[in-house]
Inverse folding.
């Protein structure tokens, strides 16, 4: 498709009332902050007993992964017109992240 055709398609889209919405900038958060936010919303959520290398969480009685927990929180935040959480590694002593080299 040539550039002129693309321009015509975009102009036609806006002429018919089309709009573009920017996605909100994610809010950096550690796991503890996500858990606190969900608890503040009235959810029952906590870290499950560790059984292996992957940590699991209990959300409203269901065992979920961290990725699922973040997804749940972000869906609830979207309903409240809040920016999504972006998971960041927790800080360790000295202000470094666990993956930072000494």
């Amino acid at each position: 498709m040539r550039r002129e055709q693309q321009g015509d398609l975009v102009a036609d889209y806006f002429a018919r009332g089309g709009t573009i919405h920017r996605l909100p900038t994610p809010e950096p958060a550690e796991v503890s902050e996500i858990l606190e936010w969900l608890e503040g919303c009235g959810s029952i959520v906590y870290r499950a007993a560790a059984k292996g290398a992957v940590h699991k969480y209990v959300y409203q009685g269901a065992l979920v992964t961290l990725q699922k927990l973040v997804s749940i929180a972000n869906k609830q935040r979207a309903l409240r017109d809040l920016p999504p959480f972006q998971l960041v590694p927790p800080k360790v002593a000295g202000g470094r992240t666990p993956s930072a080299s000494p």
Q: What stands out?
A: The CA atoms of residues 21 and 63 lie 34 Å apart. Residues 20-87 form one domain. The first strand starts at residue 27 and ends at 29. The helical segments are 3-15, 31-40, 66-79.
